[in-house]
Specification:
The chain is α+β, with helices and mostly antiparallel strands and 154 residues long. Helices cover 42% and strands 12% of the residues. The chain has a four-stranded mixed beta sheet, with helices on one face. Strand 3 and strand 4 form a beta hairpin. The chain is elongated and about 50 Å long. Bound molecules: FE2/S2 (inorganic) cluster.
């Protein structure tokens, strides 16, 4: 069940959209803000609230890569794997992150502090390789500078 607060926040967005269904991404973001991720139950509830099938909502959620359909850690690291970052060494950066965190891409650390996920171009190609940690963009990454960057995320 969507909480009253979630419903209120979703309803508050309604005037900005022509159709209720167009609110889907915004509604998913609101659910994720409250729960950290979007469960199957939440997909169903958002669908009921907006007049969409769970499949339609799930398609939107799956397409939008900042909506998490599985439980994630307190902080989510998205390492860009598009061409500029790849040419400039994102693989080595990701390998180093895996080594520091003891996880593979797609996994969450045992202490639930970090989840590591790939993402397409972050629009920071002039500072490739780049990654997003939560809402913070970090560029000019190297295998040597990523560990210090993670220290601020507790
Ligand atoms: S290719 Fe990585 S930020 Fe554009």
């Amino acid at each position: 069940m969507l909480s009253e607060e979630e419903k209120r926040e979703i309803e508050a967005e309604l005037p900005h959209y022509e159709r209720r269904q167009a609110l889907c991404i915004e509604a998913l973001k609101i659910v994720q803000k409250h729960h950290g991720w979007v469960s199957d139950e939440a997909v169903r509830d958002v669908g009921e609230f907006l007049g969409m099938s769970p499949h339609q909502v799930d398609s939107v959620a799956t397409f939008y890569n900042l909506i998490y359909r599985r439980k994630v850690g307190r902080h989510v690291i998205h390492v860009c794997d598009s061409v500029s970052c790849w040419v400039l060494g994102c693989d080595a950066v990701q390998d180093r992150l895996c080594e520091i965190l003891g996880i593979k891409p797609g996994e969450t650390t045992d202490d639930e502090r970090f989840t590591l996920l790939p993402i397409p171009c972050l629009g920071a190609c002039d500072h490739a390789p780049a990654m997003l940690v939560d809402k913070d963009l970090h560029g000019d990454l190297t295998p040597d500078n990523v560990e210090a960057l993670l220290e601020r995320y507790t």
